[in-house]
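TOPIC: backbone geometry
CONTENTS: sequence, structure tokens:
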Amino acid sequence: MTSLGKFGQELTIAIAIVSGLINVAAAADATTHPDFLAELSQRKFTELEAQIDSYQKEFEKSVTAEEKVGDAFDTFSNADPTVGDLLAEWVKASPNSYISHTADAEYLCSAGWNARGGGYATEVAADSFKRMGELLSQADQEARQALKLNPKVIAAYNILIVDGKSQCDYSTMISQLDAALAQCPACYGPRYNFIQALVPQWCGRREEMAQFVTADVMAQFAAAAQKFAAQNPQLKPDEAMAKFLQEKMKSAGQTSQLTPEEAMAKFAEEAQKTAGQSPLAKRLNEITGGKQSYEAMAKVAEDAQKYVGQNPRLKYLKGIADEDQASEALYQQKYDAAVKFYTQAIEKAGDSWSYYQKRAEAYYALRQFDNALSDLNHAHALLPESPRTIKYRAYVLASMEGGEGPQAAYEQAIKAYDAAIARGENLWPNYEDRAEMYELLQQYEKALADLNRADALSPGNSVVIWHRASVLADMGRSDDALAEIARYRKLFPQDSSIDQLEKSVQYSKQVQHGEVPAWQPGQHQAE
């Protein structure tokens, strides 16, 4: 913030590094097709279907085209409601098109995760979770309809696995993984999305696995009991449950008579006992080797390597477990550990632009600017169109003595984000990232315009609200900044991390009104 001078700039950069780590709906870095969005806006549905269908047919002949057809559908991973309206028109006009349904599912899935916003679960508002669930449910319906029309659409399976991840729904994730691999044994996407669900922060801990399997078995017990009750309408529900369990015990050689209360207790006990023997538990154990979290991720990745001759992309799966451990270390400010894990990911998976980019973040935090710049240059060579790589390069160059001037570096990053948005990557992180560049150039009106756009695409997003408050304070609009902070507190009452920003804004407001003298070097601020 302005009142913090140089420290404020360093703080802004530090927040940017962390927010880049925790953004869940990261900006797309795949090769999207802006021409597809142009055709969509012109309602050239027939032309769109012909082009994407040709990619799909190419993929069905060779798995090496998986990324090509995936990128085509990724074009519609866009949170812009206008795109959503156009896709709804397309589905209505072409109800028997697997392409229209898959494109709509991509949009709805992206919109759902954008509704959630960045940050860990404690930083996400309840309304955002609710909206996410509604959109993902719609995405699920569209993906399933696409698969009815064409069971070889791997993009639709990917969406269903990602939707299952949102609820740690192992039944959905496993069934869709198996169905996808039955169609395409050497495919990358379904394995990648399943592995991502196994990270400890999501569904990979043994507790989540056991709880879901037990719940699945209990649901099966309940369904069987309901069927028994329907066949015996003369019995009350609790009597039917007791008789149902008594008959099950009798068939197992036990003859104890149970009261309704005892029957319910026995019901839960039996579900716990048989959970580990359920088909779901057995299949999960087969896929993960009985492991959890990072070991389970490594098992899935290693099993895929038998197909690497058909699909070289599968080698990148071997680095995901190390990458996640590195990201967690980075968030916990254990930068040396982050460098170690990113290096292991590179050694296992080879040249992945994202691993080099992220290792550069750790080097930056360690003030090893030469190493950071080297990694970013390598990442840029591997994927020149990634705007986030150019953004981090701007941070590094601005921090290096004798490096390029900060203004030139930030302007270069802005041009990269302009290009990404022009390509159709109309997601909130691109606008929030570009706003950071404008803020560092003190072009606050442009920064605020981008943040307003990000807020519209992802309402209730903790990262965006925080950033808007900061920019409003930079503009001297202290009351508006405090109103935004109040909005943050209402949405995230358990999060006290915004306290320091509020103190700084309050101090700036007091300075503006002449209530306290302006801060001078050597003084403590906002005390």
